[in-house]
Design a protein that fits this description.
- The structure holds 2 protein chains of 2 kinds.
- Chain A is α+β, with helices and mostly antiparallel strands.
- Chain A has 11 helices and 16 strands.
- Among the domains of chain A are: about 120 residues, Immunoglobulin-like (Sandwich); about 130 residues, Cytochrome Bc1 Complex, Chain D, domain 2, CATH 1.10.760.
- Chain A is elongated.
- Chain B is about 65% helix and about 0% strand.
- The two termini of chain B are about 15 Å apart.
- In chain B, the strands form 2 sheets. Chain B has a 3-stranded antiparallel sheet with strand order 3-4-5. In chain B, strands 1-2 form a two-stranded antiparallel ribbon.
- In chain B, a hairpin with a 5-residue loop joins strand 4 and strand 5.
- Chain B has one domain: Cytochrome C Oxidase, Chain A, CATH 1.20.210.
- Classes of the chains: A alpha+beta, B mainly alpha.
């Protein structure tokens, strides 16, 4: 069979048409981290600049591509002549055409340059007029999670309010975020609210963004930061003024105490806990359907919580040395190497935005953290250890990883979920 | 003059050599077999060594890419671990840039540039061999990690501090992978700088009579610009790598945060090398395309001076845009604005080249042979990569695109659609010259279409992945992000691309052994490399050094056959009167010196300093031998019937 380019061309067109299908239905541009579905002025301004670049480059592309396609077809040598094709006029070029095209290119670039410059200044910091109204928070990157600090929310005897992996901000107000890191470079990126800015060691970066309406936003570390970079994620929750104030008030309180009635018997929390494969998904469709409702539900104590199990978990939390790294204000835990868990039960996600905060997921995370987030410090220990150094009865040092059995985990899960 | 030559000649009298020289200073004579390749100083053989090594690593990098795409084909995949994934993307980039595209360009520089300027070899033939063996040493150091416990380098091809520091790179294992990466890149830098200096000296000094600079073939011009970019940009990364090496091995604090070091400094040093590096990868490709388009349009390049000058402007501006890789590092408004505008400015000379290529086609007689198909594919794909580049230049838009799959799409359009397409075009174009065999048009075109389709199916969806918020360098993603179908399509495309590449190389291998014989100027070409007396070209390239009267020198020769024949006869007589064609002798010492560097480098990466010093001593011995083995050289004599006599150690017999 003779090879026919026309057939191939047809096949390519079909492929391209098929490729375009999901575009037409919008599936490729409307995910939870879509940069097209903007929800605030910074992202909007960036999208507008992008759109200008699209218009200009597409216009040039169609002109140049048109001429290129036309020339390729029009000036084809007669088939079969090959290297014996007639010799055309040996023209060397035309300086006026060149100069004209250079001029036109520069003009096209000016069209892009003007909005670019405007947006560079606009997106850099909160506009002067709104500075007084801006809310300030600090986001700190660590391998591989985010800590969020509220410098203006001081708690007596403790210092500023600190939370982890879920940044709650007021909606309709500019938020200035100081970007810090405690180890390597990370990057703070919530696509629907604005572009990323890196968290650089020895450098005080910042960005600003604003959520126009209350909402639930997906974010992710955007600078490669080591083994588990892929699973270093976070969320931003924007709340109306009243809700935000209520949230702050609750967060400033110490951890919730659950008192068990004297005659209560511990019931083992019943949820299905089959071991999960590495990288097994930790999200559910129900949650995605209305993440804000899910968030709101998390703010209240669970109806079926078992007070006895909660207190068992609280004891285990101390015995298992969780308190060395984690803080639970009011429960005697004040570690600073790991996320503050004082109100852990009110967060929608765990393991840095990776898994939804439900009991099976939390169980999975505690029992086998390395399977969820390889190289994490809960498994490996801090400061480059490969496991925790522990002494046995005879004083010999051994390296161990976290050890929580199934029963213990159920109690710790119940405890952590009680921390609303 | 005659007398002087005669004296010089007796000084290297082989009889004297035999008596007064120890065995280790005897120049190897083998013209075929392993020894001939290990000791070669022939720019064509070195070019082939570069090409074969580069293509091997191209396939290695390709396999790494396929593993990455398998992992990303479906969400929450467990095909490979996070750690292995990080090693794969680090080594995929490092391999493709330093061990595939750069050496493949170097292969063309080596093989074609001396032919294009009518020279018999490069200016420093032994140094040329040395550059290759040092390149091999660097390639081995970079890849040896795959076979060690600590694994391959895993901190990304731009190795941002402080992830490369002792504290963060070997958190959980005695890690030497980053040391290997640091050492490997330094050694490769040595190779690139040596090679480039050689090319610069060659182009400036060894052009055939009449070949003025403004008559140079565009590919040779691009070789020159690339060489300058390399010698000006590699010192920056070498400084950064030496500093990092000091941090890691001797406890200095250039990038150590705890010691007040500045990680941002690494980024500036890296990208002031890294951005010119992008042009180091693309300018040779532009050169190749600027040779192929005129040949298959059967007319000269449109606006030759502007194409040349725009190459120079790209090279120059290329040093002033590095911080567009750092728009999200919080540089402040002024710096961001300046680098934004400079980056837009560099689009102008790049656009000019595209206009001129279209102008070259205009009014021509276009013959769509396979090399031309790849060259046209290059223009289309490079144009798309260029336009997404303009989108990046707008810093506020880039804040969303930086480190997302949009960037991945962009640079693959430039590096595959650009560099690789052009280099594949070049292989097709020059295959008959290098091996004397024609590649089948049907299979060539088939491979082109499969590669073209596979490439676009792989990388076009990535634009949308990036704009839909998928960050690059992520080993897993969740299935609820709207990224599933685009990733699956990209992974399927990667395999189509792999099949295309497979067809391409299978056809090349087949053609090498069984292809139709081709002699001489198969494409009716325009530049001097096609003026060689036989294909493959003889060791001495040209029986008679050509005299150049115009741009597209060979086209001129073909249209002025009679005058040129007379001129050549005269030139031949003159050469013979001067003792014949002077050729460089082979030598073992480039290989010995590079081996010392390899041994020292490997020991150093494991912080074994005795071993490192031992390697250094071998290197020093190599250099001493090199210096004292004498200049060497022998003469060839072309006879009226076209036969060639003379060779290593035979000079005496002829006098």
């Amino acid at each position: 069979m003779r090879f026919r380019p026309a057939d191939l061309l047809r096949r390519i067109t079909t492929t391209l048409a098929l490729l375009a299908l999901p575009l037409i239905t919008g599936g490729w541009t409307s995910g939870p981290q879509s940069t097209f579905d903007t929800k605030g002025p910074v992202a909007k301004s960036q999208l507008e600049v992008f759109n200008v670049t699209v218009y200009v480059t597409f216009a040039i592309f169609f002109i140049v591509a048109g001429v290129l396609a036309y020339a390729t077809i029009k000036f084809r040598a007669r088939p079969g002549t090959g290297e014996k094709a007639p010799v055309p006029d040996q023209g060397h070029g035309n300086p006026f055409i060149e100069l004209g095209l250079i001029g036109a290119s520069i003009a096209a670039l000016v069209v892009i340059a003007v909005p670019t410059l405007k947006a560079i200044w606009y997106t850099y910091d909160v506009p002067e007029a709104e500075r007084a109204n801006a809310y300030e928070v600090t986001a700190r990157g660590l391998q591989w999670w985010f800590q969020f600090e509220y410098p203006h929310e001081q708690i007596e005897g403790t210092g500023q309010l600190v939370t982890g992996n879920e940044l709650v901000i007021p909606a309709g107000r500019p938020v200035r975020i100081n970007l810090r890191t405690s180890d390597v470079i990370h990057s703070f990126w919530v696509p629907k609210l604005g572009g990323k800015v890196d968290m650089m060691p020895n450098r005080g970066n910042h960005l600003w963004l604003q959520a126009d309406e209350p909402g639930y936003f997906w974010g992710q570390c955007a600078e490669f930061c080591g083994e588990s970079h892929a699973v270093m994620r976070f969320r931003v929750i924007a709340l109306g003024a009243e809700d935000f104030a209520a949230w702050l008030e609750n967060q400033k309180k110490p951890a919730r105490n659950v008192t068990a009635p004297v005659d209560a018997k511990p019931v083992l929390a019943s949820y299905d806990m089959t071991p999960k494969k590495r990288n097994a998904p930790g999200y559910t469709a129900d949650f995605d359907a209305n993440p804000m409702a899910a968030w709101t539900a998390m703010q209240f104590p669970e109806k079926d919580e078992d007070p006895l199990l909660v207190n068992q978990g609280r004891k285990l939390f101390a015995e298992k040395n969780c308190v060395t790294c984690h803080a639970v204000r009011g429960h005697g835990a004040s570690g600073v190497n790991a996320p503050d868990l004082t109100h852990f039960g009110s967060r929608t996600t765990l393991a840095a935005g990776l898994l939804e905060n439900n009991k099976p997921n939390l169980h999975r995370w505690i029992v086998d953290p390395n399977n969820v987030k390889p190289g994490n410090k809960m498994y490996m220990g801090v400061n480059g250890m490969s496991g925790y150094m522990t002494a046995d009865d005879k004083g010999r040092m051994t390296k161990e990883h976290i050890k929580v059995n199934d029963t213990e985990a159920r109690a710790i899960v119940e405890y952590l979920h009680s921390l609303k | 003059m005659e007398a002087a030559l005669q004296t010089a000649y007796t000084a290297t009298d082989p009889a004297a050599k035999a008596s007064g020289r120890p065995w280790f200073f005897t120049r190897p004579k083998a013209k075929t077999g392993l020894v001939s390749w290990l000791t070669t100083v022939d720019h064509k053989k070195i070019g082939l060594l570069y090409a074969i090594t580069a293509l091997f690593f191209f396939l290695v990098g390709g396999v790494e890419a396929l593993l990455i795409r398998v992992q990303l084909a479906v969400p929450n995949n467990t095909f490979i671990s996070h750690q292995l994934y990080n090693e794969l993307f680090t080594m995929h980039a490092t391999t493709m840039i330093f061990l595939a595209v750069m050496p493949l360009s170097a292969a063309f520089f080596n093989y074609m540039m001396p032919l294009q300027i009518g020279a018999r070899d490069v200016a420093f033939p032994r140094l040329n061999g040395f550059a290759f063996w040092v390149f091999m040493a660097g390639a081995i150091v970079l890849n040896v990690g795959w076979f060690t416990r600590s694994g391959a380098p895993d901190s990304g091809w731009f190795g941002y501090a402080p992830l490369t520091s002792v504290a963060y790179s070997n958190q959980f294992a005695g890690d030497s992978s980053t040391d290997l990466w640091v050492m490997g890149l330094q050694i490769l830098g040595v190779s690139s700088v040596i090679g480039s200096l050689n090319f610069i000296v060659t182009i400036i000094n060894m052009r055939a009579p009449g070949l003025t600079m403004m008559r140079l073939p565009v590919f040779t011009w691009m070789t020159l610009f690339t060489a300058f970019l390399i010698i000006l940009s590699f010192p920056a990364i070498t400084i950064a790598l030496v500093e990092l090496m000091m941090d890691r091995s001797f406890g200095t604090g250039f990038f150590e945060v705890a010691k007040g070091g500045l990680p941002i400094l690494w980024q500036h040093l890296f990208w002031i090398f890294g951005h010119p590096e992008v042009y180091i990868l693309i300018l040779p490709a532009m050169g190749v395309v600027s040779e192929i388009l005129p040949t298959f349009s059967r007319k000269p390049l449109f606006g030759y001076p502007i194409v040349v000058f725009s190459g120079a402007v790209i090279g120059f501006l290329g040093f002033g845009v590095w911080s567009h890789h750092m728009f999200t590092t919080g540089m402040g408004t002024m710096a961001t604005a300046a680098f934004s505008l400079a980056t837009m400015a560099i689009a102008v000379p790049t656009g000019v080249k595209i206009f001129n290529w279209v102008g070259t086609l205009w009014g021509g007689q276009i013959i769509t042979r396979t090399p031309m198909m790849f060259a046209l594919g290059f223009i289309w794909m490079f144009m798309m990569g260029g336009f997404s580049g303009v989108m990046h230049s707008a810093a506020p838009a880039d804040a969303q695109q930086q480190d997302s799959y949009f960037v991945v799409a962009h640079f693959h359009y430039v590096l595959i659609g650009g560099s690789i397409f052009a280099l594949l075009a070049g292989i097709h174009y020059w295959f008959p010259l290098v091996f004397g065999r024609m590649v089948s048009e049907l299979w060539g075109k088939l491979s082109f279409w499969v590669i073209f389709v596979g490439f676009n199916v792989t990388f076009f969806p990535m634009h949308f992945l990036g704009l839909n918020g998928m960050p690059r360098r992520t080993a897993v993603y969740d299935g609820n992000m709207g990224w599933n179908s685009a990733n699956l399509i990209a992974s399927i495309g990667a395999f189509i691309l792999a099949i295309g590449i497979g067809i391409y190389f299978a056809v090349m291998v087949y053609t090498y052994f069984k292809g139709k014989k081709a002699t001489g100027d198969v494409w009716d070409a325009r530049t001097l490399e096609w003026a060689v007396p036989t294909t493959p070209p003889p060791e001495h390239n040209f029986h008679v050094t050509p005299t150049v009267h115009a741009r597209d020198a060979f086209w001129y020769e073909k249209t002025h056959a009679k005058e040129i024949a007379e001129e050549k006869a005269k030139q031949a007589q003159e050469t013979e009167a001067h003792g014949g064609i002077h050729m460089p002798s082979q030598s073992w010492f480039p290989l010995v010196t590079a081996t010392g560097l390899l041994i020292g480098g490997l020991f150093f990466t494991h912080h074994n300093f005795q071993g490192a010093i031992a390697g250094g001593c071998i290197m020093l011995l190599g250099i001493l031998g090199w210096a004292f083995e004498g200049p060497g050289g022998y003469h060839l004599h072309i006879h009226k019937d076209g036969s060639v006599t003379g060779g290593e150690g035979q000079d005496h017999a002829n006098h």
